[in-house]
# Entry
Amino acid sequence: MIEELLSDDEALFREAVRDFVEKEIAPNAARWDEEGCYPRELLPRLGELGWLGAGFPEEVGGSGGSTAIYALLCRELARGSAGVALGIYVHTALACSAVRHLGSQAQRTRILPAALAGDSIGCWAYAEPGAGSDVSSVETHALRDRAGYVLDGRKLYITNAPFADFAVVVASTAPQRGLKGLSLFLVDRDNEGLTTGPPMKKLGMGASEMSEIVLDGCRVGFEDRLGKEGTGFIQALEVLTLGRIAAAALAVGLMEAALEAALGYTRDRVQFGRPLTEQQFVRFTLAEMATREEAAWRLTLHAARLADAGQAHDTAASMAKLFASQEATHVCERALHLCGAHGYMKDSPAQRFYRDCKVLEIGEGTSEIQREVIARSLGV
Ligand SMILES: Cc1cc2nc3c(=O)[nH]c(=O)nc-3n(C[C@H](O)[C@H](O)[C@H](O)COP(=O)(O)OP(=O)(O)OC[C@H]3O[C@@H](n4cnc5c(N)ncnc54)[C@H](O)[C@@H]3O)c2cc1C
# Structure
């Protein structure tokens, strides 16, 4: 049903990405997950195809397109490997998007052409040991002096950090001002004051890599501050809205992959003298999984279309992210269940989808934070 919601160009784009994913990503997804290594060699290839620049204007090194095109990209990549899609969306929807929307012309020229070509990779460094859902708890501070700023603090759970070339860091320039004291900074990997910890081991998303980042007397210039001093929180919210659409699209891609795995297994598996797909419980479960995926995609595409029309879309993005991530958890669990013991085995894709999906309810604002955003839009 996805085609009927797409323009001809969008359908062609989707076909091209799907073809690439089926040849180059899906066959390697289990190995990358097992090895815990991000396939960095893919990034220049995706850059060359213009896909890392999807949704970014040509004048900053992008390939044009729209948020809807970007959501399609995230969905199709996640169908092949959610871990690969996670690394790409952190790089594009968070790090590059922050530079695009908040950066000066000089910062855009410095960062984006190489980043959208896949020659340099970014990470988004917000979370800290004491700051997760509560943004006002950020303790990393940026002390201003005549030459610029000195950053000190620890960032935790940072996707792409083990190999990223640059980080967009959320830090406080005025701790007494709470949220209104937060600012964003660009920090290069070769900055002497930045070190990364060993790769962190995760339940799922094995193909993506994460580590902590330590900022110790990390000196940056005024030209490295993104946007105005003290407006970092509001600016971060703008960036996170695209991230929420991307996270929802990832959830839809995972649901599609899980449904395909469950369909394949239950068609082939014969019990009680007939394929499982002839059992009403199995048929109904598959039907419900497909319905949940379809509804999640419609919410996701709706949020993307609002963004493309220049309309307010923060509530729509939160609804899409809340719904799609919850449904992905349900659909991936049902897929594993329908695959029985085979689904529980390490060589089954169903167990990977089951492990991969959970983080989509946690990162990019947990489900409770999305509910808060949605409730506020109701005036309560
Ligand atoms: C795989 C993965 C990748 C990540 N990548 C990045 C990254 O690249 N960059 C980055 O900055 N961060 C990243 N994160 C961290 C992410 O930003 C945080 O996990 C997220 O902000 C939630 O914070 P927390 O995990 O500390 O949960 P907490 O804030 O400690 O919340 C714990 C629980 O309490 C609930 N809760 C909290 N406050 C409330 C409330 N007021 N009302 C009701 N319930 C509440 C939450 O919903 C949650 O269920 C990543 C995390 C994971 C798991």
Summary: The mean pLDDT is 96. Residues 123-230 form a domain with the Butyryl-CoA Dehydrogenase, subunit A; domain 2 fold (CATH 2.40.110.10). The two ends are 36 Å apart (CA to CA). The beta strands are 122-125, 141-145, 148-159, 166-172, 182-188, 194-196, 210-221, 225-226, 270-271, 274-275.
